[in-house]
Structure formats: structure tokens, C-alpha cells
Amino acid sequence: DERFHRTLKEELLKRSSFTSIESLQVACNQWREEYNQIRPHCALNLEVPSSRYKVSNREFKNLSPVFEYDEACHVRSVSPNGQVNFKGKTYSIGEVFKGRKVGVHETTIDGIYKIYYRHQLIKELNLKV
């Protein structure tokens, strides 16, 4: 795991600067394909990781689709491209949340909101910028 993170940092994150979350996602997708499907790995006798992948026989138990956010938050649906609308603006939070509901909580700092998926903080918004 540590080796993977070092490689990701050296090959992708240190070599590029990203102007948006979308440009970072495109670069990560390209790097992931090369890392897993094209480049041979010494630890795998010069095979690619995808050659060793096997689908699990265990069933994936998805989280219950029902989750109640508290009354103090603004509930938003995430669009198919991973965005939410809030106070007249669109914010990208990631395609992994598409079709899900997220909660937007106001903080004690004026103009600062936090977006949660269930109990997990996923983004902080500053409406003053």
C-alpha cells in the first residue's frame, strides 16, 4: 500500500498541477489504467495487476439506501456527473456519489458550509469566494 502511494505521488501528483477536480480525475483514470493494465510489475514477475484480479464470490452488501439527515441541513441529490446545486451555484463532489443524497450543513463561520455523505465529511464550501 505504501509503495502504491509513493508511485502515485511520484508518477502523477508531483509531475502535474491540476486546475480542477475534473482534470485531476481524468489524469487519475489514465494513470490507473496504465498502472493496472499496461505496465509490468516486478513484484508480479513482470505481469500486470489486472492479470491477477479475480472477482470475489462474496456478495457486496450495499448500505441501506435510507438515511435521514438532521433537520438543520439542506439535503441535495448528486447529479450523474457528481455535482450538487446549492445557493445558485454548482459544486463538484465526485461521481462516486451520483444518485445519492448529501447533506449541506451551515457552520458557525459566515459563508462556510460542509457537505456530508451520511456522517462522512466530503467537502467544505466557502461561499465568500
Description:
This protein has 129 residues and is of the alpha+beta class. 23% of the residues lie in helices and 24% in strands. The protein is built from 2 helices and 6 strands. It has helices spanning 2-13, 21-38, and strands at residues 74-77, 83-86, 89-92, 101-106, 112-117, 120-126. The strands form 2 sheets. Strands 1-4-5-6 form a 4-stranded antiparallel sheet, with no helix packed on it. A two-stranded antiparallel ribbon has the order 2-3. Strand 2 (83-86) and strand 3 form a beta hairpin. The mean pLDDT is 90.
The low-confidence parts are none
Overall pLDDT? 90
Main beta sheet strand tally, sense and closure: 4 strands, antiparallel
Number of strands: 6
The SSE string, one letter per element, is HHEEEEEE
Q: Could you give the distance between the termini?
A: 37 Å
Binned strand content: 15-25%
The helix-and-strand class reads: alpha+beta
Inertia-based shape: extended
Gyration radius from CA atoms, angstroms: 19 Å
Quick overview of this protein structure:
With 129 residues, the chain is α+β, with helices and mostly antiparallel strands. Helix content is 23%, strand content 24%. A 4-stranded antiparallel sheet has the order 1-4-5-6, with no helix packed on it.
